[in-house]
Amino acid sequence: MQLFITFVLFLLALLRLSRASFYDNPPLELPPAEGTPLDELERKWGTDFGFSGIMTYAHLPHIRCLTTPSELFDIGILGVPFDTSVSYRTGARFGPRAIRAASARQTSFRGFNARAGLNPYTAWPKILDCGDVPVSPFDNALALRQMSEAYLELVNRRALSYDESTFWTHPRVVSLGGDHSIALPALRALNKVYEQPIAVLHFDAHLDTWHPAKYPSAWFESPGAQSDMNHGSMFWIASNEGLILNSSSVHAGLRTRLSGDDFGDYHDDDRQGFLRIETDDIDVLGVNGIVRTILDTIGTETPLYLSIDIDVLDPGIAPGTGTPEPGGWTTRELIQILRGIEGLNIVGADVVEVSPGYDDRAEGTALAGAHVAYEIITSIVKRGMKDRGLWVESEHEKPGRLSNWRDKAKQVISDMGDGAQKVVGARNEL
Fold it and tell me: Is the Cβ–Cβ distance between 276 and 229 less than 8 Å?
């Protein structure tokens, strides 16, 4: 009998469900005369899916920061759509747009970075997408002035979370390029604001410290001509202007061909004080050895500009770039290295040379650029938390069997001693 009653109740439940309509929603009601409360509007309409919303980096709020000085921020994402100083393939002017589109699946409600133990988009700093610098595509001298003044305008402002004791007096700007020459105006501005040379950590297949005359031409003028500025000479210019802390700067991921018939390019690079880490060094040192070499050279207190040319990755992974070079690092290797150097004192950064016209249909290059920017932002946020005393390791420790992987990695690095430096140093003595 009990089984029969249960069966009848089940049938009645099915009958009720069959009569239910997809359109059985509460009746529409007019909003209150005084307007719907803001918190209710935010609850209903304040969240986007990856495929919805206006295209900003990671769905961050967009403020045209250059024309809105009253809107203070801590980290600004700045597009710099400039590409008329490239030596091979143009198209990186569309890089900021492509990187923003590729960041669409990054949202504040699913932005927790498990490796770092935090969500950069819900942590202490105010992060804005500051839009783009309207750069002239017709006059490189004017473009350089525009980029320099725009960057200076932003980094010279007072950070929203101003804290002189933690060196957080000015906002950090993460630039989305554009070709690599956008690093020069950034370094000019940072040098002006911080009143000191800035160390550079440069991920790239190429040196980018070439004398402008290394691009041979009967039309070459003496240094100082507008044509000097290109995406392979901007660090040469910056070094000669005293903008770079050359004794504490590093190239990483190099696999470039050199000029002429000898190692003259390396000798020029030595005079500018960069430590060179070749792409192949990762086969000997591993990721941890690369990390140790970078940290030992730069230190964790030196103000640093982190510059990442997407061509540091192998073109089989990231084909959408201006000067592709086979044999590069994988995206995973680059990300692991960036995670290992999270303690660096980054005062500015860029992700450059994403040229979507040459990308694959899956947008692999733009996706890599968007994720690299996410890792940079995460590291800046985490360093800021530690400097402010907001970081409690036990609260951010990754649960599970791999919770102690960081300690193990640190021990591996420590056990390597100076081996990593010796291997890289031997290469640099060529």
Answer: no
